[in-house]
Amino acid sequence: MAKLKLPAPPLPAALQPKPKRPGTAERVGPVEQVKEGAISAVDWVDERTSVTGAARWMMFRKVPKGTNWFYTLGSSTLFAFLSQATTGVFLAMYYDPSATRAYESTRYLTNEVFLGEFVRGMHRWGSSVMVVLLFLHMGRVFFFGAYKYPRELNWIIGVILLVLTMTMSFTGYLLPFDQRSYWATIVGVNINGTGPIVGPFMSDFLRGGAEFGQTTLSRFYAIHMLLVPGALAALIGAHLYLVAKLGTTAPPWLKANEPQEFNRERV
Questions:
Q1: What is the C-alpha to C-alpha distance for residues 57 and 55, in angstroms, rounded to an integer?
Q2: Most CB within 10 Å of its CB: which of 89, 92, 174, 243?
Q3: CA pair distance 93, 88, nearest whole angstrom
Q4: Taking the CB of residue 224, how many other CB atoms lie within 10 A of it?
Q5: What superfamily does domain 67-246 belong to in CATH?
Q6: Each residue of 52-109: pLDDT tens digit?
Q7: Is 253 helix (H, G, I), strand (E, B) or coil?
Q8: Angle at the Cα of 112 (from 108 to 114), degrees rounded to 5?
Q9: Contact criterion met (CB below 8 Å) for 73 and 146
Q10: Where do the structural domains in the chain lie, given as residue ranges?
């Protein structure tokens, strides 16, 4: 029989805190004022959007037993993408997508702009890091069997993200428009042109004509800065939604515990 818990008796009047005198207010420091203002702003937005409910649904969910550091490869790839997007915005502020001024704008950005070499280095090496992390993440998903039912659609989205990431790397390589990027892009476009049926059309589309020139550089810049990042952001959102909705899979070497009622039926 459950025991009833009686409520605690009220404090005597002598021990209760005295009410504040009328007209007096507690002194609040600047830190508390900023904190209170931020909380009020968040509450104002949440009252009109209910965004905290979606955030709780996205961030607070059950994690299977045996989750390890291999499961952080997807988050690392997302962080690499955000780093590429941030540094790319700063690089675009100084870059001039012109066949005659692209190299000079890149040289000025690297040698003259404050922290320009650092930001460009982060963007340059970050692209390689993102590709490596993406392959590691897909390898983990494949070997752990996370592409099976009901996560087939998420696997297809991941494959499309891989293709778009490689497209991002290929189009960004031409943008400095130096001798190495120029001739390497010519080789890459010619390789695409050898594909069956759509290969020649793809090659003409990338060149923007019969020869490499201003149209080619402008087209590569538009694909690299506008088309592919937008598609990546949309598909990453869909990818994360499916991960939150379907959950993650346990490592294949762990077996699920059978419910107790099944064990009783066997006995």
A1: 5
A2: 174
A3: 9
A4: 22
A5: Cytochrome Bc1 Complex; Chain C (1.20.810.10)
A6: 888 888 878 788 888 889 999 999 999 999 999 999 999 999 999 999 999 999 999 9
A7: coil
A8: 125
A9: no
A10: 67-246
